Amino acid sequence: MIFDFAALPAAQRYFQMIQTLMPRPIAWVLTEHESGSYNLAPFSFFTAVCAEPPILMLSLGLKTTGEHKDTRVNLERSQHCVIHIPDRNMLDAMNASSATLANDISEVEQLGLALQPFDGFALPRLRDAKVAYGCKLHEIKEMGAGPQSLLFVQIEQLFIDDEILEPADHGRIKVDAIKLDPIARLGANEYGFLTDITHLKRPD
Ligand SMILES: Cc1cc2nc3c(=O)[nH]c(=O)nc-3n(C[C@H](O)[C@H](O)[C@H](O)COP(=O)(O)O)c2cc1C
Q1: Four-residue CA torsion sign, 163, 164, 165, 169
Q2: Which of 25, 99, 37 is nearest to 69 (CA)?
Q3: What are the tens digits of pLDDT across the range 42-89?
Q4: Does 42 fall in a domain?
Q5: Is the C-beta atom of 110 inside 6 A of ligand 1?
Q6: pTM
Q7: Do the domain assignments include residue 176?
Q8: What's the structural domain count of the chain?
Q9: Which range marks the domain in which residue 63 is found?
Q10: For residues 47 and 128, is the Cβ–Cβ distance under 8 A?
Q11: CB of 75 closer than 6 angstroms to any ligand 1 atom
Q12: Beta strands at 131-143 and 148-160: parallel, antiparallel or unpaired
C-alpha cells in the first residue's frame, strides 16, 4: 500500500509516521517553572543530532490552546533541562506525566517522584532514572505549520547509574541495555521493551 502524503490530512500523515518510525526513545524532560515548581513531560520526537558539540533534539507541537508547551516556555526562560531515559518501572508515571496540567502544577509532585541533586547542575534529576542528561539550551528552531518547535540542547553532564555499567574494550565503560530496560515508543499507544540483543562487529 502506498500512502500519498500530499493527499493525506496532516493528522493521518502524523499517524502513519509514528506507526513506522519505531522504536523511538523517550525523553522524560524536567524543567523549572518560574514559580520554582518542576515540570515533567515525555517526548518521543527525540534524537541525538551532533557529538561535537553534544546536542540532543526534541520536537514539540503546541498545546490544543495554541500556546507553547510548558517544556519550551520553561526551557527558554531558565535555559536548562534534565532529560531522563525512562525504564519499564516508570511506564505508568511517564504516561501520566503527559497529561495537560496548569503550568505551575508539578507533575513531579503529583506523581510522588523523588528528586536528587544533580551534582553541580542547575536542576535536580529524578532519583530513580538510571540515565539523566543535564542540558543547556543551544537553539530553538521553528518548523512548518503550527509551528513545531525544535529544541536543540547541549549535554553538560551525564549521570549513569553504576548498577547498569560494565567494563568494555579499550578501557571504556558500557551500558548494559537490558539492565537499563528503556521504554520504546511504538505506534498508536503501544510501547516495547528490549528482550533480544545481538552483537555485530562493524566491517573495517
Ligand atoms: C510517550 C509519549 C511521547 C510524546 N511525544 C511527544 C513529542 O515528541 N512531541 C510533543 O509535542 N508531544 C509529545 N507527547 C505529548 C506531551 O508529553 C504532552 O503534550 C505534555 O502535556 C507536554 O507537557 P508540557 O506542556 O508540560 O511540556 C508525548 C506523549 C507521550 C505519552
Answers
A1: positive
A2: 99
A3: 999 999 999 999 999 999 999 999 999 999 999 999 999 999 999 999
A4: yes
A5: no
A6: 0.97
A7: yes
A8: 1
A9: 11-188
A10: no
A11: no
A12: antiparallel
